[in-house]
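G., the chain you wanted modeled:
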Amino acid sequence: MTAFDAALAGFAALDETALARPWPFRGHAMDVRYALYRTLEEAQEAHARLAARPCPESRRILSLAGRAFGDLRGLLTGLPADLLDRAPREGEWSIRETLRHILLIERRYALQTLYALERADADPMRIPEDRLAGVAATVDGSGGIGELLDRVGAARAETDGQLGDVASARMTRPTTWVHYDVDVRFRLHRFAAHLVEHTVQCEKTLAGLGWRPPEGCRVARRVAALVGELEGLGGTAEAREIEVRLAERFASLPAA
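Predicted structure as tokens:
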């Protein structure tokens, strides 16, 4: 677990009472809550600077998937281990099963979108099934919540590297999704939408298990989401700086 993940989990576990404890800021007393909100403000400042730079449409689209993954990461980082494999009702997925599905679809979407960009006009519109068949075998659903999230994050970074610089003229390359004729632009937007869909599913799963996120988790999710978007926009250095700030602030919190 990185220092950022540890800080994210630590802040996420704080309830209203813990967040109301005093926290020093610029010679005055704020509360612990503001340690999170100040980090969010700094992430917003970095985002505003990055948003002003020229950027391919494909990278801006995928930055929304980065934001969606950050939100999921903020929800689940530090999740109690006993909730990972429990399903709220028979026939429904556990958090582990949902994360495995997210990882599988991230990889399949990337492969299908790359095929649409690389295929010759004479090639079939739909990717050959044998190219998709082996993807499931590469998806590792073992380990704890941190390991699962790390694998999704690595797959997201790979997608961004492969598809973040699609030329404008190729955004309308024809492809398919389910039974529909679409284009590359449509498929790129699917990455974020799919992550949001299954983040909502995770929220429903946890609610069904009787777990409610503390206030700290609700704010930490916003920070993690913006860090994910910064990375998606190519702001790796900016994202790392925000992660360092959050870790330093968590380390500075007063003892309970």
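The chain has a mean pLDDT of 95.

Shout if anything looks off.
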